[in-house]
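Researcher: For the record, we're logging two predictions in this thread. I'll number them. Prediction 1 follows.
Model: Prediction 1, sequence and structure:
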Amino acid sequence: MAYYKPCLTLNKANMARVLSEGTRGHEIQSITLAKALAHQYQLEHITVPAPWRWALPYRLIGLGQSIRSQWTESSVSSRLIISTGRQMAGVARWLKKNRQPESKHVHILNPGYYFRDIDVVLIPEHDRQRYPGAITFRGNLHPFNTRWFQQHSQPQNKSTIALFIGNPHNAYFKQQFKADLQHIRDAFKSAELFLCGSPRLNHETQRFIRSLVKPTESLWLDTRDGDNPYQTLLANADKIFVTADSINMMNEAGASQAALTLLARDYIQSKKHHRFIQSIEHRLSEFKDLDKAHPLPDPVKELLDNSDLLERLELA
């Protein structure tokens, strides 16, 4: 992010209106940005019916009538509208045009077309999308900064090894996962091993993983296993293994001081994933390494400090 500016004081908005279609990863990014830019935020879940679901963010005609009953009226006016993903880009465009013309609209991820009525577009560097006036950031926007880790870290009796499993290609589970798991066990025999999987894993893969886990090991794959321990592990693991299909998990694990090693790299074909991995190569550790590492920079702080985001949103 090649931009220099003098130190500016953030003048937070009173309220940010966050629009979400329910995708958890989108929601986290929007809320993280809202907390950085506003004193409070209002989260609104919007279900977009057909045919607008496929037509957004381009065609807005008739959209207001179809989602009118889902709007929440707030007693506090919002200077900011924040959206992530193409559907919510369209909903936010309609909202600004018809209800809040004075608000600033900031959209996260490429909306797919250049819209003059979106005030700021934020796009991950690894996407390499050419969007006029876009501000780029690394990986994803997440809340796991230095203060968060200080607040959530806890003393551990012994080393904790976390294995974050995204949703890599089935071939990885058939050909390599069992061997990787055993390799981890052999390398860290005295440590506590905790496997934490994405809810996106299909039932067959979940059954396969469950069949491999030993009674002395911990596992979370869905709500049947209790509360999701992802954040607790992120804050307290000494070593994190993460499958390379999830840019969000790689970026968030890199925000910790834990030694970080990627799995399933040979099963990733996406160019954008390879570009992201290359950008954090310096943060990665050898397989058996347990040494603490220097965290990746906070992407939200980088946006605030090293771009013209605040000026464009009139918050400085």
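Researcher: Logged. Prediction 2.
Model: Prediction 2, sequence and structure:
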Amino acid sequence: MTTSTELRELPIEAVKPNPRNIRDDIDETAESLERLAHTIKVDGIINPLVVFPSTEHEEEESWLVADGHRRLAAARQAGLATVPALVKESEDAAAEAVKIMLTTGTTSERLNLREEARGIQQLLDLGVSKTRISKELKQKAQHVEAKAKVARAPEELATSYYSGAVDVEGMIALQKLETEDPDLHAKVTKRIAGIRSRVDVEREIEQVRRHESAEQLRAELEAAGASEAPFSAQYGDGWEESDLDAAGEPLPISEHVSRGHRYLIEPWREVGDQLRWFARVKAAKQELSEEEKAARRRLRALNKELALTAVSRDKHQRRKLQEKKPADQATLQRMMARRLWREAGFWSVGGAWDPDNVKAVLLEELTGLPRPRREDGSRNDHVLFDEWVQWREKAKEKFERLTLGQLIFVWEYLGSRQQDRELQKAAGYRQVLDPNGESGDHFAWRMEYLDSLPAWGWEFDQHEQQALQYWDEQDSEAEEEAA
């Protein structure tokens, strides 16, 4: 797209507000506009407007504003006859003007969410691709698409986004739900409509989904002739839980009904785990006190909310996985160290009283802390155990201070011990899969390890080079014979 720019002084009457202006209507009685008009009257317009030639009034020359609608209104109030403007010529003036409205903010009030969504939708209407808009605004394409959909959404739902109650990730979740389950989407949007405080959309979706599942389950049970147990059944009160048959298998609903069992539905639980069955017992169990019942009710209320919180937490963590920098370097280093400490089994080092355990030796080398040894028979097992525990704690403190690079190499080192043992024999250097030997996966792991050794700074010595050459010759001959 070709664009040229020229600074000119234009008659104010020939400069028109852009009909595609994405901003909300300017309040010409607003105090802020009056202050701007006073400043312009005293100092003039410091930052020129940005305009494009208008094609709507061919009989007279005129221009449409791309940036500077408030300055133009203030200049009119100040009584200016002309305004300075950067006149831009473009093959696609309409789209270029909207793009400027979206990206220019040095002299303007910041765009609100409604204005941004309106601008994005206008660009799409003008044929600008989602990918190009994403690059221009430096936003994810998924976010651009979601904001455009907000501009077309019913006002009640759009207001939830414009007010800040629902963020862009929440809108993406709602838009996805609308495609997958329109009925559930309608119920969720009705639930959150009018809320002006921050809404956890994933939590609301899961809560409505569980409630809907519970209602469907209740209808199914009532149709089968099942009766509901009293709420106190879960505390005993002459009832016991009875979900399984004598063989430990779940009973069908019809069997529960024939045995006189009664149900309780817990709508806060995950779908598929909301139904409990109870049977009367002849000998009533010990009654709970009112305090004990109140404590259990409190725990059940907490469990209800925490089950939904777990869904939101999982969604949050999965979104973090998509970020290029999900946390600062120090946090990532500690997370890696603690995970590696557990997964590699360092926490149990010394448990077998093996002073030459490979992991114990490695920890000693990494931390510089001498590991406990049974040098003579003077120390009993209890004393040695205590020494190992103390040593491990000190080693862990130092281990967590290793650099991220060191931790990655430790992980790679421990994970490649099997492949390294295979390089103790010439067969380990063969770079062609033997169909009568190892599996394809095993071969791939061995090749990955061979390829990674130079990254460790390892240079193959003459014997390794001879092994590689040997197999290269053998496999080349075999290939020629087969041909």
